[in-house]
Amino acid sequence: MRAPRHAPLPVRADSPHAPWPLFGTEYSRRIEQAAQAELPPHTLMARAGLAVARLALAVAPHLRDVSILAGPGNNGGDGLLAAVHLQSAGRSVQVHLLGDPARLPPDAAWALSQAQAAGVPIELGAVPEALPAGSLAIDALLGLGHRRSPDGLIAEAVKRLRQHPGPVLAVDLPTGLDGDTGRCLADAPTLAVRADHTLCLLTLKPGLFTGQGRDLAGQVWFDDLDVSPDTLPEASLGLAPETMAALPRRHAQHKGSFGDVLVVGGAPGMTGAAWLAARAALAAGAGRVYVQPLDDRAPLLDPAHPELMGRRSHAASQLPTDALTVVCGCGGGREIASALPLWLGRAPRLLLDADALNAIAGDSGLQTQLTRRAKRGQPTVLTPHPLEAARLLGCSSTEVQADRLAAARALAERLGSTVALKGSGTVVVSPGLPIWINATGNAALATAGTGDVLAGWIAGVWTQGVTAWQATRAGVHHHGAAADHWHASGRRGPLTASRLIKTMSSGVH
Ligand SMILES: NC(=O)C1=CN([C@@H]2O[C@H](COP(=O)(O)OP(=O)(O)OC[C@H]3O[C@@H](n4cnc5c(N)ncnc54)[C@H](OP(=O)(O)O)[C@@H]3O)[C@@H](O)[C@H]2O)[C@@H](O)CC1
Ligand SMILES: [K+]
Fold first, then answer.
1. Do 294 and 229 fall into the same domain?
2. How many CB atoms lie within 10 A of CB 173?
3. Could you tell me if residue 278 is inside a domain?
4. 3-state DSSP call for residue 271?
5. Which coenzyme or cofactor does it need (predicted)?
6. 3-class SS shares of the chain: helix, strand, coil, % to 5
7. Rounded to whole angstroms, how far apart are CA atoms 189 and 317?
8. Nearest C-alpha to atom 27 of ligand 1 is from which residue?
9. Ligand closest in space to the Cα of 143
10. What gap in Å lies between CA 210 and CA 113, rounded to an integer?
11. Is 88 annotated as a binding-site member?
């Protein structure tokens, strides 16, 4: 997937209708070097500067003043060249160059000479007290070349951009964000630029779409600088529309054609979680949905959804397993631990969520049972949030969040499972397959029960005959798309779990 050549504008990179390839620093450098070797000197930078100027004019057509904060590397060079184009488009441009002109890398030095020749006002080595209130600010401080916390003048400039009341456009990456992981490079999150728009150049970087990336980058745009990578991406951003389309209902099919789901969960005081997951599985299209409450006194009926079938543990263990997908967790409490050995052994498809994951994290015997499933060809899906992932990995949630892609990959490989690491930019990975980052969702999902809905929905899709990888991506995408729809239709506040199921059922993609 690449932007059209000579696109009049950079292409929005969050279109949910296609997967976008993502490349981290190492790959991006290789792609850049290969392209540089083929092209006349400074070609990429010339394209980058033009792309930045075009986007600046498009997102702030009404603003006459443009302040460009340019750093000591080629990211600064992009800003300097953008200044030339913006000035010739009639904007009043001021560049603040925070690097020694004598030590700029060759492309940026060339860009500086172009800006000087065009008479662009350039102030050297000083961060202004404030940026003009009515100006567009361009963050061309640091891009792919920064791996450490902003310091010195760069840190000052980041603070100034954070204080700027007008729009901020970041070049390639918001300064302070690690493009590989989506973590802030500084301990203090205030030492990262919070942009309204980010124009990613040459390659889309994964860190823009997970962890802190989505909050710091604002609207992400992409310009491939007319370069086609000849290498496979490390990860992709997007969805799995093919999965939803691949599940048509034919006349001759009956409820047995769509698979069964059993939800094991709902310990005393948390029964609702299991029924929510069950409702979601049914709404996702499962043929028959059963619930095994982990509270022996809990009723075996959801009066609002009599089509769901409650079973005590003995009866549940007698269900035929051929077409069965089992969800363990969902309000499982401590009680889930005793149900796990049976289903780790028996379930042909098993999804583990919440307390089931905590039980496995604390029991090496259950871990061994889990890893044996993969060897027997029984697929498993894990849907941890960062703390649950940390417990499974034996680290802290801060460490998980510092590199969500690596954490999800480690879990998948270690436990032989498909993993959906939840959070901003949910990361989905199956052993041996590329990482997929979800493009949908927002904070409206941060409310009780939405995780149960996700687990149930994935199971409901999975049991219809797609792979764990397809079902997980489809469920994660669809879950987030419902929240985006909720937000776009002007609603504010949390999207309750019950309403989430209704929104997901209404065909929002
Ligand atoms: N070449 C081309 O034609 C193209 C280039 N492109 C553009 O170039 C960007 C990559 O450029 P780049 O490699 O020069 O790195 P960049 O991010 O500008 O910074 C490096 C400088 O910053 C310094 N520095 C680092 N961390 C720091 C900190 N915390 N605080 C303070 N200083 C810090 C670092 O110093 P050092 O760490 O070495 O001491 C070094 O001097 C890329 O993102 C894209 O925008 C694209 O348009 C495609 C075409
Ligand atoms: K930047």
1. no
2. 31
3. yes
4. helix
5. Mg(2+); K(+)
6. 40, 15, 40
7. 50
8. 146
9. 1
10. 37
11. no
Q: Among the atoms of ligand 1, which is closest to the Cα of residue 76?
A: 18
Residue 412 in tokens: 């998948």
352 in Cβ contact with 360 (< 8 Å): yes
What does the pLDDT look like over 185-194, one tens digit per residue? Answer: 998 878 999 9
479 is in an annotated binding site: no
Is there a domain that residue 1 lies in? no
Task: Look up the CATH number of the domain holding residue 452.
Answer: 3.40.1190.20
Q: Which of 187, 204, 235 is the last residue of a domain?
A: 235
Give the ligand 1 atom nearest the CA of 48.
Answer: 47
Task: Say whether both 216 and 287 belong to one domain.
Answer: no
**Maximum distance among all alpha carbons in the chain?**
83
Question: 70: CA distance to ligand 2 center in Å?
Answer: 8
Q: Are residues 401 and 441 in the same domain?
A: yes
| Domains: count for the chain | 2
Residues 286 and 173 in one domain: no
The pLDDT tens digits of the residues spanning 436-489 come to 999 999 988 988 999 999 999 999 999 999 999 999 999 999 999 999 999 888
Structure tokens at 500: 């989430």
Ligand lying nearest the CA atom of residue 69: 2
User: Which residue segment(s) compose the domain that 178 sits in?
Assistant: 11-235
